[in-house]
Amino acid sequence: MATILYITAHPLDPQSSFSLAVGTEFIEAYREANPTDEVVHLDLYKENIPQFDADVLRGWGKLRSGSSFDQLSDAEKSKVARLEAIVDQYVAADKYVYVSPMWNFSVPPVLKAYTDATSIPGKTFKYTTNGPVGLLSGKKALHIQASGSVYSEGPLAPLEMGYSYLNKVLQFYGIQSIEAIFVEGTASLEQAPAIKEKAIAHAKEVAKRF
């Protein structure tokens, strides 16, 4: 049995969001193909994801200097413990499915905060004399991204910093099996329904072998 984290970063519902519509169909097809796997849904808009603020940085600094966890302030304890729980859950999973829209050429702020929370030395990567090394080899990931225009190829490709950002983070973790499903060109109201249906069909096929 494998554990898959289904990580969504959109504040609306599948009826209003192209990325969530495709993601929902993917995860349903995945469950059908892998009935014994555990699917954990993380709606990042409903999760407590501490920012890397003064409490977090001071708390980590105290721990590195030899202070015990009990010597941290209440705010430092709460945030540091929550961040550790987030990354531990992440490391324990076998597969990752990220679902997000492209906003301002990149990912929503909650997804950036989540990648910050999972980018922890000694957990998802480590520093060596030869540079950083990812610790999550053997795992796999998928990113479902929706956008109004086409960014995966063509003249707007240089502006795409959503999937390309997440792809680099995942490779940094040592994950080499990374796929993407792009739901692109949805700003065209006439073509949007067909674009969504095509992406859903693709997602169902990917789900069978993911």
Automatic annotation (TrEMBL):
InterPro entries: Flavodoxin_fold, Flavoprotein-like_sf, FMN-dep_NADH:Q_OxRdtase_AzoR1, NADH:quinone_OxRdtase_FMN_depd
Name of the protein in its database record: FMN dependent NADH:quinone oxidoreductase
Alphabetical list of HAMAP family matching this protein: Azoreductase_type1
Residues in Flavodoxin-like fold domain copies: 3-205
Keyword terms, alphabetized: Flavoprotein, FMN, NAD, Oxidoreductase
Role this protein plays: Quinone reductase that provides resistance to thiol-specific stress caused by electrophilic quinones.
Family indicated by similarity: Belongs to the azoreductase type 1 family.
Keyword Ribonucleoprotein: no
Reaction catalysed by this enzyme: N,N-dimethyl-1,4-phenylenediamine + anthranilate + 2 NAD(+) = 2-(4-dimethylaminophenyl)diazenylbenzoate + 2 NADH + 2 H(+); 2 a quinone + NADH + H(+) = 2 a 1,4-benzosemiquinone + NAD(+)
Record's subunit section: Homodimer.
Coiled-coil regions listed: none
Signal peptide: none
Cofactor(s) required, per the database record: FMN
Enzyme class, UniProt record, top EC level: oxidoreductase
The keyword Flavoprotein is assigned to this record: yes
The gene coding this protein: azoR2
EC number: 1.6.5.-, 1.7.1.17
Cofactor note: Binds 1 FMN per subunit.
Organism: Paenibacillus albidus
Residues binding FMN, per UniProt: 17-19, 102-105
Gene Ontology terms for molecular function: electron transfer activity; FMN binding; oxidoreductase activity, acting on NAD(P)H as acceptor; oxidoreductase activity, acting on NAD(P)H, quinone or similar compound as acceptor
